[in-house]
Every structure is written in C-alpha cells, then in structure tokens.
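Predict the 3D structure for this chain.
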Amino acid sequence: MKNTILVALFFVGSFSFAQTVKIEGVITDNKNVGLEMVNVMAVNKATKGMDSYAITNDKGRYVLDLKINTAYTISVSFLGMQSTQIEIVTTNVNVSKNITLQEGAVELDGVEIVREMPVSIKGDTIVYNADSFKSGTERKLEDVLKKLPGVEVNADGEIEVEGKKVTKLMVEGKDFFDGDTKLGVKNIPADAIDKVQVLRNFNENSILKGVENNQDNVAMNIKLKSGKKNFWFGDLTAGIGLGMLDSRYLINPKLFYYSPKYSINLITNFNNIGELPLTIQDYMKLTGGFRGLASKGGSSFNVTSNDLGISLMRNNRAKEIETQFGAANFSYSVNKAWTLSGFGIISSSLTDLETLSQTNILEPNSSEIQSTENKKELANQKSNLGMFKLSSSYKPSTNFQFDYDVLTKISKQQEDAPLVRESIVDNTSTTEIINTTKEQEPISVNQNLSLFYTLNEKNIFAVEMQHLYQEEDPFYNANLNSQPFDLVGYVAGQNRNDISQNRFVKTNKIDAKVDYYYMLTPKSNVNITLGNTYSYQNFNSNMYQILDNQSINELEDVTNKNDVNYNFNDAFLGLHYKILTGKFTFTPGVSIHSYNMTNQQLGTDFSQNFSRVLPDLLAIFQIKKAESLTYNFSYTNSFTDINQLAEGFVFSNYNSLRKGRRTLENATARQHSLRYFKYNMFNMENISAFLTYSKRIDAIKTEAFYDGVNQSSVPYNSSDFADETLSGSGSYGRSFLKNYKASFSANLNWSLFNNIQNNVLSTNESFTQSYTLKASTNYKKMPNLEVGYNIVINDYANSVYYTDRPFAKLDYYFLNSFSLVTEYEFYHYYNAEKTVNNEYDFLSASLIYQKKDSKFEYKISGTNLLNTKSINDDSFSQFSTRTSQYTVQPRYLILSLKYNI
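Done. Predicted structure below.
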C-alpha cells in the first residue's frame, strides 16, 4: 500500500513538472550587483491567482515554474528598491529574463507584496502567508506550522525555526502565555491565522538590541485575519464515547479576543480520554519567560528541586488519565507607555500508571550484572497545579524602559504506589510486597525587575534584579517486608518495616547586576558588568518508624536528621568587548569572582572563600545574510546547593539512602560549542548543525555501595578523573517541486562518567543516537502524505537498545466539507541480544464534516485504534540499566460537536 502511494505521488509530481516552463534569471541593482532575498511573484492574468513565487539566492538568481501558453504579470519587490512589474506570455520554451531594480522604494507596494507572497523576508523577519500552505484539514496553529518550510514542531509543542528554539510566542504582538509555546500551538485556531512572523535576533528590549548578541533568540508572532480582530472568536467542543465507551467525555471551550487596547485568551479542557493540555513536565520547566541573570558572569548556582521523583508517563500515555484544566491570559495597554499583562493556569489530574520494569545493577567497569530488581508497580497520582504571572512594562520613550514581573507556582501532588518486587542476588530470588506514599506541596515566588536607560548615543545602562523564594515539603513513606537499611535506633524484627521521612527546604535567592555599555564606534562597544548572587537556604529533615503495635519510634540520632543553614555569595565584575569587522563579530570577555560559602550544621560552621578569573569568547562568522558559523567558549564555576551538603541521611526511596558532604567544592567546566546554520529561501533549503564538548573537573560524583539491590551513597569531588560530554545535532531540509518537503536530522550524545561503586572506581560510557528521515506533500486539492522513519540507539555500558519507528500521516480535504486525518506509528523495540524484542503500533484517525461557512463541525475520532496494550522504554543511571513496559489507555471512539464562535 505504501509503495503504491509513493509511486502515485511520483507520477503526479512528474506530470505537474512536465506541464510547466521555467522563467529564470538574475535580479541586480543599477551597479549590476546581484540582490539576495528579492521577492518574485507570478500572477496569472486570467485567474488573478498566484501560480508561482521565488526568492533570489545570494547571487540574485530566481526560478519560476509556470504554466505553458499563459499570460502572467511578474511582480518584483525588494526593501529599499523600487518595485517593478513585467508582462510575459509563456510558450513551451524556457525563458531567461534578467531584471534591474532602481534605488528608492514605495512602501505601500512592499506591504502589498508581503501580503500576497507565501514567504517573504523583511530585515530579520520572515513572513509566512498562512493561507498559502493550508489544505483545509488544519484545525490549530500546530497543523499550520508543520507545513511551513524551515519550521518544526515536536511532540511537546516546542517550535524550532532554522534549528533554533522559539522562546516567545505572541499574537498580534502580545505575549501568549509567556515562556511556553505548547498552549499556543495546541489551541490557537488555524482559521484565525493570517500571517506567521518569525522574528530572528529577537530582543524584547529595543535599547539593548544593537549592543547584545541575540543571534540565538527567536520569537514568533501570529497575525490574525481582519475578521478576528475586535471580536470574540474561538470554539466550544463537547464529545462523548461511542458504543461501550459512553463513559468517556471531552469538554473543551476556547475563547479569544484581540483589540489594539487589550487581549484576552481563555482555554479550558475537561476530559478522561488522555488529552493533557499541561503535563507535570511542562509545569516544572515553565519559567514564565524568566532568565538566569548570573549566566553571563560565568558562575552556575542552580537551586535543585526536592521533588520526590513522582512517576512520569511517556508523553500522555498512561493506563488512565482524567484532566481538568483552565488557563487565562491577558494584555492591557493602560496608555501608550504602560502595558500590563499576565496569565493564570490551574490544572488538576488523576492518573493511573502500571509499569513492569527490570533494573540491572552492573559490576564496576563491566556489563556483567551484579543483581537484578524486577517489579510490577501500580501508581495512583493526584496532581493539582497552579501558576500565576503578572507583568508590567513601562516605556515612556525609546530611551527608557522599566519592567516588573512576578511569577507564583503552587502545587499539591500525591502518589500511592503499591508494587511487587523480585530481587535476584547471587542467583537467589526474593519477592515482597511494598507500599509507598509520596506527598508534596511546594510553592515558589519569582520576581524580576529590569530598568534600561540610554543616556545618549554613547552610553547605555541596564539594571536587572531577580528574587526567588521557594518552599518545599516532600513527605515519603515506605512499608515493606525486609529492613531496608541499618539505621541507628531502628527497631528490627518487625513484621512490616514502616518508615517515613519529612523534609522541609526553604530558599531565598537574589541575583542582581548592573551593565554599562559604552559605544566606541557604531560597530564596537565595551560592556562592564557589576553583579552579585546571594542565596540563603535551610534544610530540615527527620525520620520515624511505625512499629507493629502502631507506636512511633522517633529516629532521633544525629545521623538520621538534618538541620542545615547554607549561605552562598558570589560578587563579580565582568568586562566584555564587542566588535564587528567585515563578516566577523568578536566578543571576548572575562569576569572576576569573589566567592563566600558557609554551611552550619552539627553545631559547627564550615566556610570557603576564594576568587576566580573566568574567561569567555563568542565569535560569529556571518558568511552570508542567511548563513553563519558561531563559536562559543565558556569557563564556568558550578556550585551545588544545600541538598548535597546535608550530612544526615535522606531516605527518599525504599531502596535508596543517601547523605551529603559539607566540604564539597565547586566543579569547573570548560565548554566549546560550534553552530552552523544556513537558510536558502531560493529553494527553501534549511541546514543547521551544532557541536558541543564539555569537560568537568572536580565534578561532584557519587560514591555508592550496593547491598544487593539497595543503594547507599555519598557525594564527593572527583579531582583525578574528569567527566566529559560530546553532543552533536544536525538537520537538512528543503522544499522542491513546489508541493514537496523533505528533511533529515540526527542527534548524538556521548558521555563519560566516573564514580565509585563498592570501593572500586567505576567508569561508564553512554552513547545515544537518534536519526529521522521524513518527506511530505502539500497539495491544495489532493491527499497529502507524510512518511518517515526514526531510529533510536541507546548504548549504556555495552548494553545496546534499539527502537525502530516508521510513521505516516495522511490528511485529505474533499467535497468541500470533509476532512480526513489519520496517523500511524510502528515501534520495534529490542536489544542487541534480542532477549528483549517487542513490537507495537498506534493508529489514530478522525473524520470531520463541516459545510463551508457553517459554524458547526461534526467529528468522529479514534485513538489507539489497534488497541495496543503497552509501550517500552529504557534508561541508564551510571550504575545500572533499566528497561520498562508501560500500560497505555485502550481504544477510544469519540463523537464530538464543535461550535465556532
């Protein structure tokens, strides 16, 4: 079947190609210099439609594929030059036509061309005309973006353009849930989208745009159709399960309003069919657009999370998921100078996970198995998540800007996970039933204040401050047959070993810096930075045992509890020099740091004080307008937070006991990165490649001791052996024959880790590889097919696991009313020895009926139509390998009705 479709597509493409004639040539200025990125458009004089378009390459060359024996108007436009039009009638013979543009532009002509061209470029902005790429089956922004050349959207809703991640999504220039693109790509209606603007070299602050290096910053702005402005729009969707699945439901209202004065976005979703608008992973990584201020100074002090490792599902695939979700986003222009914006997100979910897993503890420096843990785990999770942000931006003039943001995150999570564990040690098998409970209610408040001021054309000032307040209170309980560890004061001989631990961690962290920029010339400047990072943390923990008679045994020994205070201070002075010379940009820099650290525990203080000089370098070779090579070198001091310093035992899992070391020192990392990117609008060719090498000296490592499958550990600084990481990625994509798009991508990561296991130095390597090849069509009135193949190879300590994944997607808009969309994925998961060898696949399909101009849409959709029962995964923890099998939701058939507002 697949071969038949591919052959048919080939003949369709060949036929289409045979009925065309080429018009090609070079577009130059009046000095006979080829002009790059000129917009060329061919309008059919009879139909008034656009039959072809082109954008010139770096030599000024263009090519148009036109119908034979047809009259055309060729329109040519370029920013800063006068637009021109040429009349031509094609024959069956190719034509060569060179065009010279004169200086001076009529802006209105340029605006008209941007409106009609499928793709155009204006400075650092790429503009896609969305209707030029729609086929009729698109329902949300994600569906449109996937059809745009040079744009990719992954399963997590992250957008990449030219190999760079889009960090900000806006609609009509207003933030759409700042710091996340998933809510936008999954919810903004496709029929509301007029233009997609990609803003390269993006900086929210126009004052710093010319002095900072923003080459990796990419934002996206969605322009709405005129009928969607100053009116409420959106849709209301309700669905119910068919047949025996009538207990399944979906309720999904979405409302949007945009005007020059304010905007409102409302998104809700209530369902038990596995749709997850926001996962726990999304919540944890959502920053609300906040950025780390100290990263420019060369120090790294990250506040680690004290989450309890609550089980995470693979994407949205679990045994059972029920979700209630609500989100609101607003922007209000108080006046021309002052804008208020913000958002609120509330999510509640009930999730059941069923997992079969095998963990193999490896012998040091060997792939031989020391012991094995097999377990079947049933986890029931309750998660309530909340996030709220308020932002204020005051810009009374182009020379002054004052911003303030506050982001609050609250959550309440609970997991009850009974499991059956089989331990195999020295060929002896032991089975027991274990019950675990995890609870946590963390809260964090992050505030950001920024002030930017241009004194004159030579002097620019920037003041930035950020404050983080965070409280964490994880509680863990394990109830098992065997005594897990030999703790001081523990009462042995109980029928059940019931042990619990409370933890409370409080963090106050302030980052502040002042930047001064002096413009030496229009192409060079000096940047002086004065900054400080201060953190105060408190860590408390205690353990207790519940005996068989239900009395409580408080484990009061100092080894079983913690009361630690930790102060960290980093004062630094930085100096950077930026110069543009020809095609090169150089930004060498150095920062001088004075560090002070003190931790108080066990009745004593331990302090460290020292200074460091940290160099860095950024070099950019702008080969052409849309081709560059970037090299970045950084020398970073990395510091642990309080979690690794607390010397009392922390019992966070039934088979894991750890303690810290108060004398830990910082690690030093040297990192080299090289990025190449090329974007050729002439044939929509997109090439990106990234290579990074990092070497960590004195890294904080783990000294672990395994008693069968139970682990106790303590951190230490590895001064004799460095950890190394080499990672690379690359992609190549292009469009051809107007309606075809193909791409190839590769991601590789090699890591070398050094630890101590059972008093033996253990060195482990891991090498992961992922390769993806795919091709797709984009016809207006024919079925569109995307086919591809992905292979993932995970090599952990000489244990190799493979996942082959061919996939296909078919979408077809027909009879001016029907849309058919179906997706298929086949997985073959196996290891090198074929002792693990599983195959499973997923098929989903939807049939939509909506008459033209009707507000009602009827949809029948099916998920997991082949009723696959489970999926596989594997991982590596430097001491062990783990393979898992997850039960997934069964087949669902949903009948839904949507009303478009």
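The two ends are 40 Å apart (CA to CA).
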